[in-house]
Design a protein that fits this description.
The structure is a single chain. The protein is α+β, with helices and mostly antiparallel strands. Helix 4 packs across helix 5. The longest helix is centred in the first third of the chain and has 14 residues. The radius of gyration is 20 Å and the shape is elongated. 15% of the residues are buried.
């Protein structure tokens, strides 16, 4: 939740296009450093303009690809590409679209991210902290089989195949994960 300055916006520039183009939540907070005057454009008006002038939408999408190369986006691109089936055959546009659809969640130490025998409906990617992976031995006791750390993913194949988890994942320490919903 720490604020990080990623860009300054000058006179004549715009912001909020990611939310409009991707039909998703805003990806940043904009704060004025001094007195400012801004004009706003609501989604219905934006859509009408794009229907009339389609090049505006394509130009904005190209600008997003070029101008938004911050550390967070680069991290997300890298970890999503590390998922086995997200190889070079999947176009960058698809991976980039996924970036705008992920959700960030925090888990306290000892909290389960997912449990064995529950339906897998998302892919987890660890951002920070550690997650211990357990398998239950006939409901008698849990066996620690692995520890995941930043950049590791879990659930990709089970999510695609509509399978149940065969393992459980518990936060070894306070951790943060992004979730790619099915």
């Amino acid at each position: 939740k720490k604020e990080i300055l990623v860009n300054n916006i000058a006179e004549g520039e715009y912001f909020g296009e990611v939310a409009l183009l991707k039909k998703w939540n805003r990806t940043a907070t904009v704060k004025s450093l001094n007195y400012s005057t801004c004009a706003g454009l609501k989604e219905p008006a934006f859509e009408r303009i794009c229907l009339t002038y389609p090049f505006i939408k394509s130009n904005m999408e190209e600008r997003i690809k070029i101008n938004y190369k911050d550390k967070w986006k680069n991290f997300l691109m890298r970890v999503i590409r590390n998922i086995d089936f997200m190889n070079e055959d999947v176009p960058d546009e698809v991976v980039e679209e996924m970036i705008y659809r992920v959700k960030l969640f925090s888990y306290n130490q000892g909290k389960y991210l997912f449990k064995q025998d529950k339906l897998c409906e998302e892919i987890f990617i660890i951002v920070n902290g550690e997650v211990e992976i357990y398998i239950n031995n006939n409901k008698i006791y849990d066996i620690l089989v692995d520890t995941l750390f930043s950049g590791c993913s879990i659930g990709s194949y089970s999510c695609l195949k509509n399978e149940q988890y065969t393992i459980s994942g518990m936060a070894k320490s306070d951790c943060t994960a992004i979730i790619i919903p099915k």
